[in-house]
Amino acid sequence: MVKSRTETFSGNKGLHLEELLIFEQGAAGRSGVDLPDLPKVKNRLGGIERQSPIGLPGLSEPQVVRHYTRLSQKNYSIDAGLYPLGSCTMKHNPRLNEKMARLPGLADLHPLQPQSTVQGALRLIHTLAHWLKTLTGMPAVAMSPAAGAHGELCGLMTARAALEDRGDARKKVLVPDSAHGTNPATAAICGYVVEAIPLNNRGRVDLSALKAALNDDVAAFMLTNPNTCGLFEDEILEQSQAVHDAGGFFYCDGANFNAIVGRVRPGDLGIDCMHLNLHKTFSTPHGGGGPGSGPVVLSEALAPYAPLPWVVHRENGFELIEHVANDVDAKPYGRMKAFHGQMGMFIRALSYMMSHGADGLKQVSSDAVLNANYLLAQLSEELTLAYEGPCMHEVLFDDRFLEGTGVSTLDFAKAMIDEGFHPMTMYFPLVVHGALLMEPTETESRESLDQFVETILNLARRAKSGDKKFFQKAPLYTPRRRLDETAAARQPTLRWRPVLETEEAAE
Question: Of these four, 210, 222, 244, 480, which has the most CB atoms within 10 Å of its CB?
């Protein structure tokens, strides 16, 4: 039985320290930094000077250090434990990669340095691009996109540029029901009408529905493979052929490339463009809002339209090409960002590739698929699979095993937090009711998977035993208990205000 939580006078619970907002800790006149007096200058603000304090908290240096240290200790991270988020691939980031990214000759670079002084960096980008093309079987790659969704935008803009160049202004993009949400969003941003393609009863794209939707107004079909149900699209060759026969381009969301790297080359499947999330397949850090990196590999048909800039190797060394006025074969649609890409992520990704080698990368995808199928086999005893058969890198369950218990997928996930596990992805993909999508990744050991399995099985049995109140109260051991998420979404408090100010406003 879970014991009731003991409240303390301080609010602290052992080494779990209570932490106020940084604004609540501030005091007037307190500062951890001595700044010089501002020089006397002519006022050029034209009467729009600030009339009141800007509201920054006054804190000493120890307060600042303690505050952010305590906040970091409240975060769950891959360095703390298993992170089973489906469709996100939260796996270990090797420290060797971090060491390489901190080498002075790489960490101290500036994007505006003369090219003659950054030959090593340009060579690194060129080498990484070479291996991305080799692993995917594609002839070209755009390195500048700053994230997966940015890569999607790059891919569709490249396809649109190719269509416009041939005078073919198509209006529609087809997206499967199981796609990542950024796929239809990207198509809409590019000005296309989005049409959904349903799945069959095997959790894969309904080929007949796809063929029925294809016509001379379809610009592209956006497929995720392996898809978001954790399944390989085994009719992908027929899909790509049908799209090409209709004159469209075949886009592949490469977010799940980590499940097939070293074993399947997307270029051999008829894919025209595919973004690669470097954090998912090549272990660069993920989360916290960045930095991301989403290179896009391109087929021969789309290569001429790749965005600027790109690195080329010539007799006098490496060059960063930013203008193509004299190159009649290239027709770039423009640029994706100010500079060339996320250099720190390039370093980490290439370090990962070189430390693994071809055989190691093949082992990576093999272990990712093995671990997911291990969860499938072990958890199917109590949980209900959304689709029968083996999975790829992630396994998808639905909430049928909770029928009649009064416990929801959300309740189940909250109880996982008390057990020390970050919840799996919930309610996604939307085509599966009460979805529980789990991805163990290849970096988890048999021991950590067994601990996770036993915990999930225990929770499932407890839910079926009728202990509904236990799940509805969870989590009990977090710094904050369950929130009213509906109210928070509808009436978010986006700005902290002092209590006094709030009371005066109420009067």
Answer: 222
In this model, does residue 501 exceed pLDDT 70?
A: no
What are the beta bridge partners of residue 321? Answer: 310
Axis-axis angle for helices 343-379, 446-464 (nearest 10): 50
Which token pair is 328? 């009649």
Query: What is the model's pTM?
Result: 0.90
Q: How many C-beta atoms surround the C-beta of residue 213 within 10 A?
A: 18
Cβ distance 267 to 255 under 8 Å?
A: no
State the helix-helix crossing angle for 446-464 and 409-418, rounded to 10 degrees.
Answer: 130
Assign 3-class secondary structure to 92-106: CCCHHHHHHHCCHHH
Reply yes or no: is the peptide bond before residue 104 cis, omega within 30 of 0: no
3-state secondary structure of 496: coil
> Any residues with CB less than 8 A from the CB of 393 and at least 6 apart, and which?
89, 226, 230, 256, 258, 259, 365, 368, 369, 372, 439, 441
113: exposed, middle or buried (C-beta count within 10 Å: 0-12, 13-18, 19+)? exposed
Percent of the chain beyond pLDDT 70? 96
Bridge pairing between strands 436-438 and 395-398: antiparallel
Single-letter residue type at 98 = E
Return the closest-CA partner of residue 499 out of 22, 23, 172: 23
pLDDT per residue as tens digits for the range 29-80 = 888 888 888 899 998 999 898 888 888 899 999 999 999 999 988 888 888 8
Residue 1 confidence class, pLDDT cut points 50, 70, 90 = very low
- Alpha-carbon distance of 384 to 466, in angstroms, equals 18
**442 membership: H or E segment, kind and range:** none
Question: Are the CB atoms for 53 and 391 separated by under 8 Å?
Answer: no
Question: DSSP character for 7?
Answer: P
Residue owning tokens 């959904």: 196
- pLDDT tens-place string over residues 445-499: 999 999 999 999 999 999 999 999 999 999 998 888 888 888 999 999 888 887 7
Return d(Cα 146, Cα 343) in angstroms, integer.
10
Residue 260: its pLDDT value, please? Answer: 97
Yes or no: say if 257 and 187 are a contact pair by the CB < 8 Å rule.
Answer: no
Nearest to 418 by CA among 480, 497, 338: 480
Report d(CA 356, CA 334) in Å as an integer. Answer: 35
